[in-house]
TrEMBL record:
NCBIfam families: PRK10738.1. This is Putative redox protein. InterPro entries: KH_dom-like_a/b, OsmC/Ohr_fam, OsmC/Ohrsf.
């Protein structure tokens, strides 16, 4: 897997993925940026959220469950000192569908956290405390 990050100007960078997609990263105005893109550390959390969401949905789809929506809300805490690494991350899933079994959602979240999500497992091995929770909602 390869990516490239190219400096644009000031605190703005263009991230280019090996699969041909691009994303703008920018810093806040008080750090020379113009606030026109996500921060690099936010990008890390987005990657974690995408990785674990992909797993959860893949597991639920294999069970042929009628999922209509899946949202991962991620809250993170960072160290006060430099480097301001993540110290705690909490991922809360809201999975909506028709006649979903809570046990199936619980299992999918647990499998992602403990076996499949490379991003969260890598961060945990680096000392980040990661917790997960979920809510199951009935679709209208």
């Amino acid at each position: 897997m390869k990516t490239r990050v190219k400096w644009v100007d000031n605190a703005m960078f263009l991230g280019e993925s090996g699969s041909g997609h691009s994303v703008v990263m920018d810093g806040p105005e008080d750090h020379g940026g113009r606030n026109l893109g996500v921060r690099p550390m936010e990008m890390l959390l987005l990657g974690l959220g995408g990785c674990t969401s992909f797993d959860v949905m893949s597991i639920l789809r294999k069970q042929r469950l009628d999922v209509t929506d899946c949202v991962a809300d991620i809250d993170a805490e960072r160290a006060d000192a430099v480097p301001a690494v993540f110290t705690k991350i909490h991922v809360h899933f809201t999975v909506t569908g028709r006649s979903l079994k809570e046990s199936a959602v619980e299992r999918a979240v647990k499998l992602s956290a403990e076996k499949y999500c490379s991003a969260s497992i890598m961060l945990e091995q680096g000392g980040v405390e990661i917790t997960h929770s979920y809510t199951v909602a009935e679709a209208e």
